């Protein structure tokens, strides 16, 4: 079962909603309906309270979407590919590829989200002077929430925007990896204090602190991994002794090959060219006499030998696969697995401790 669903596309970016959002939406509608002004509509009749609460709750996620679009549109100006925006229980996330390492570009992308929230908040507070009680209450709440959203996202901790702002400043004077490490440490310290404070005040702060702590740790791991794996190419790591199958081979032969090699999938090669891939999942329940060409998947995820090992790692993680065929000029020249990448990472980290560093890929 899918955890998120696409609802529409805007500015060429797919917007998805995670099912966890529905839980928060219900909680927000209830909270707004029972809270007094300016953070709720408890002073209004029941019907009006419900309508205003639904408007405020859905409007909040419209604001979060605008916040993420602010990031995305600025990022696209710097050539960053946006894979989509997901709205979930903790807010939203713009899924970006290859964020720029230039501090000023990262700073511009990071502050664009909070700036959007502050803009919406200020405009809403201005509109709260409308002399209609319901509209005044709605825009006052909406203004406060967006200002709070902007301030909250400037907390100097990953995955908040403030963590990236902090890293952009540090990266002006230190290496990107070191700036990330310092920013992640600060984020974890803030998360610990937030969790302690949450024990005595609000349990939600504990969940937010956990989210920040995990986000800071994962960001650090990813950047440090890129720092190591970005220095070697796929060609340096791949296995050139590739076990392939032909499109005319029968499924019974593929089963024998799986048992012999312990591999769960094989590239399908015809006259030296990669034309598909077949996995154990593909052949379950298939007639053993069926030919590979009638069962294989033609949608092959492959990588070039010139790409970095980190690019291969990212592709595997995003696609949920353990091996990638390496293709050059339409022909398969090797295969790279997650275990290959983790092994080379261990080797490079050990060598780095010894003072050895390989020059970065050009």
The number of domains is 3
Cα-atom Rg, whole angstroms? 25 Å
Amino- and carboxy-terminal Cα gap: 42 Å
State the total count of DSSP E strands. Answer: 8
**Largest sheet: spatial strand order:** 1-2-3-4
Outline the biggest β-sheet.
Answer: 4 strands, mixed
Mean model confidence by pLDDT: 86
**Strand-residue proportion:** 5-15%
How are helices and strands ordered from N to C?
EEHHEEHHHHHHHEEHHEEH
Helix content: 55-70%
SS class: alpha+beta
Number of H/I helices: 12
Shape assignment? globular
Please tell me about this protein's structure.
The protein is an alpha+beta fold and 362 residues long. It folds into 3 domains: 1-154, no CATH class; 162-229, no CATH class; 234-353, Roll (CBS-domain). The chain contains 12 helices and 8 strands. It has helices at residues 20-34, 46-77, 103-127, 133-153, 161-170, 176-200, 203-229, 234-237, 251-261, 280-283, 309-319, 338-353, and strands at 4-10, 13-18, 81-88, 91-97, 265-270, 273-279, 323-328, 331-337. The protein has a 4-stranded mixed sheet with strand order 1-2-3-4. It has a two-stranded antiparallel ribbon with strand order 5-6. Strands 7-8 form a two-stranded antiparallel ribbon. Helix 2 packs antiparallel against helix 3, helix 3 (103-127) packs antiparallel against helix 5 (161-170) and helix 6 packs antiparallel against helix 7 (203-229). The mean pLDDT is 86.
């Amino acid at each position: 079962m899918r955890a998120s669903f696409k609802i529409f596309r805007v500015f060429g970016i797919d917007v998805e909603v995670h099912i966890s959002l529905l839980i928060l939406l219900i909680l927000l509608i209830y909270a707004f309906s029972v809270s007094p002004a300016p953070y709720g509509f408890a002073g209004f009749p029941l019907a009006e309270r419900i309508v205003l609460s639904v408007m405020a709750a859905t409007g909040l996620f419209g604001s979060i979407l605008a916040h993420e679009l602010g990031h995305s549109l600025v990022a696209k100006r710097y050539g960053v590919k946006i894979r989509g925006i997901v709205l979930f229980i903790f807010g939203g996330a713009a899924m970006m590829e290859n964020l720029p390492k230039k501090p000023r570009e990262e700073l511009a992308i990071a502050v664009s989200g909070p700036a959007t929230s502050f803009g919406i908040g200020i405009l809403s507070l201005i509109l709260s002077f409308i002399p209609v009680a319901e509209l005044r209450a709605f825009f006052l709440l909406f203004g406060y929430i967006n200002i709070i959203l902007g301030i909250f996202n400037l907390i100097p901790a990953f995955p908040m925007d403030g963590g990236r702002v902090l890293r952009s400043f540090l990266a002006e004077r230190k290496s990107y990896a070191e700036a990330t490490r310092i920013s992640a440490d600060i984020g974890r310290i803030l998360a610990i204090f937030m969790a302690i404070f949450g024990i005595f005040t609000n349990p939600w702060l504990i969940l937010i602190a956990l989210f920040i702590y995990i986000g800071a740790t994962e960001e650090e791991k990813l950047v440090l991994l890129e720092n190591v794996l970005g220095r070697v190419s796929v060609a340096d790591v791949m296995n050139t002794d590739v076990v392939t199958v032909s499109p005319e081979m029968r499924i019974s032969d593929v089963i024998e090959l799986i048992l012999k090699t312990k591999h769960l999938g094989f590239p399908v090669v015809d006259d030296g060219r990669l034309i598909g891939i077949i996995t154990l999942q593909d052949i379950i329940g298939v007639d053993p006499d069926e030919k590979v060409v009638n069962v294989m998947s033609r949608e092959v995820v492959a990588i070039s030998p010139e790409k970095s090992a980190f690019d291969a790692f990212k592709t595997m993680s995003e696609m949920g696969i353990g091996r990638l065929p390496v293709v050059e000029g339409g022909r398969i020249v090797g295969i790279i697995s997650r275990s290959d990448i983790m092994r080379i990472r261990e080797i490079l980290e050990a060598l780095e401790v010894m003072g050895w560093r390989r020059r970065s890929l050009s």
